[in-house]
Amino acid sequence: MKRGPIVIQLVLPLFLLFVASFPLSALIAPFSVDGLVVSYQKFIAVGLVAQTTMTGSLVGGTLLFTDRRHGMFE
Q1: Which helix H or strand E contains 43, and what residues bound it?
Q2: pTM
Q3: Domain coverage including residue 33
Q4: Average pLDDT over residues 17-42
Q5: In sequence order, what are the beta bridge partners of 37?
Q6: Would 3 be classed as within a structural domain?
C-alpha cells in the first residue's frame, strides 16, 4: 500500500489538530454557542472529521472509476 493515502487520511488531520491548532488557539478566543463554550480545538476537530470522511469518499470513488475504466470488473 502506498504511503500517500495513509499520510493524507491519518497523519495530516492529526498534525493539524495537535500541532497547528495550539498556536492558533492562543490567537482565537473561545466562543459560546447556546451556552456551551467552544474552543478552537473543538471547532477544528469537527471540520477535520468531515474532511477525512470526504477525502476517503473521494479516493474510494476515484479508485472505483479508475478500476471500471481500465476493465478491472470484466
Answers
A1: helix 40-69
A2: 0.71
A3: 13-69
A4: 90
A5: 32
A6: no
| Alpha carbon distances (Å) from 65 to 41, 51, 73, 74 | 36, 21, 11, 13
Which pLDDT score, from 0 to 100, does residue 32 have?
94
What is the SS3 assignment for 28?
A: coil
Residues 52-59, mean pLDDT to the nearest whole number: 88
Q: Give DSSP secondary structure letters for 4-20.
A: HHHIIIIIHHHHIIIII
Instruction: Give the angle subtended at the CA of 39 by the CAs of 37 and 41, to the nearest 5°.
Output: 145
User: Does the CA dihedral 61-62-67-69 come out positive or negative?
Assistant: positive
The letter for the amino acid at 23 is P
Number of domain units in the chain: 1
Measured between alpha carbons, how far is 65 from 6 in angstroms, rounded to an integer?
Answer: 20
Does an H or E element contain 40, and which?
helix 40-69
Would you say residue 59 lies in a domain? yes
